[in-house]
Amino acid sequence: MTNDTGIKAEELFNKGIELLGKGESLSALSCFEKSFEIKKTVQCQSYLGMLIALERGKVKEAIALCEDAVLKEPDNTVFYLNLGKVLLKAGRKKEAIETVRKGLSFGENEEASLWLSGLGIRKKPVFSFLPRKNFLNKYAGLILKKLGLR
C-alpha cells in the first residue's frame, strides 16, 4: 500500500512540473498540494512554497517552506530559484537576486540564469563615488553604451 501511495505522489508531482512548464500554475499548485499530502518530499515542498506565494499570496508560509527545502538540500539550484521567486513576490528583490546567485554557485541552471537576466540587473555606475542619479553617471553610461564599451 505504501509503495502505491509513493507512486501516486510521484505521478502528481511530475504532472505538476509538466503543468508548470505549460504555464498552468494554478493547476500545478493543485497537483503539488495533493502530492505533498500523500508524501512530503523536499522537491514538492519547494515547488508548493513557490506556488503558494505566486498564486495565493501567502508569502510568509511560502518563505518558510522554501527556506526549509534549501536547508534540507543546500546544493539544489532549483530550490534557490524557487525561494528567489518567493522573495521577489515579497518585495525583497535584492535578497532574491542574492539567493538565486548563491544557488548558481552550486551548479549551472539555465532557468535561474534566464530569470536573473530577465530582472534587468543594473550595471555599476561609471563613477562609483557619485550617486547613480548624478548627471555625469547618467550620461557617461549612455555614451559608453552607445560606443559599445559598456
Give a topology summary:
Blueprint: H1 2-21, H2 25-38, H3 42-56, H4 59-72, H5 77-89, H6 93-104, H7 110-118, H8 135-146
Helix pairs in contact: 1-2, 2-3, 3-4, 3-5, 4-5, 5-6
Account of the 3D structure:
The protein is mainly alpha-helical. The protein folds into two domains: 2-119, Alpha Horseshoe (Serine Threonine Protein Phosphatase 5, Tetratricopeptide repeat); 123-150, no CATH class. The chain has eight helices and no strands. Helix 3 packs antiparallel against helix 4 (59-72) and helix 5 packs antiparallel against helix 6 (93-104).
Summarize it:
The protein is mainly α. It is 73% helix and 0% strand.
Structural key phrases:
single chain; 150 residues; mainly alpha; Serine Threonine Protein Phosphatase 5, Tetratricopeptide repeat; 2 domains; 8 helices; 0% strand
Category from helices, strands and their pairing? mainly alpha
What is the number of helical segments per DSSP (H or I, 4+ residues)? 8
Number of strands: 0
The overall average pLDDT, rounded, is: 91
Strand content: under 5%
**Which residues form runs of ≥5 with pLDDT under 50?**
none
CATH superfamily of the largest domain: Tetratricopeptide repeat domain
Helical proportion, percent range: over 70%
Could you tell me the CATH topology label of the largest domain: Serine Threonine Protein Phosphatase 5, Tetratricopeptide repeat
Q: Main β-sheet, in a few words?
A: none
Question: Taking Cα atoms only, what radius of gyration do you get, to the nearest Å?
Answer: 19 Å
Q: Mind telling me which CATH architecture of the largest domain this is? A: Alpha Horseshoe
End-to-end span in angstroms? Answer: 61 Å
Which word captures the global form? elongated
Q: Please indicate the count of domains.
A: 2
* Pattern of helices and strands: HHHHHHHH
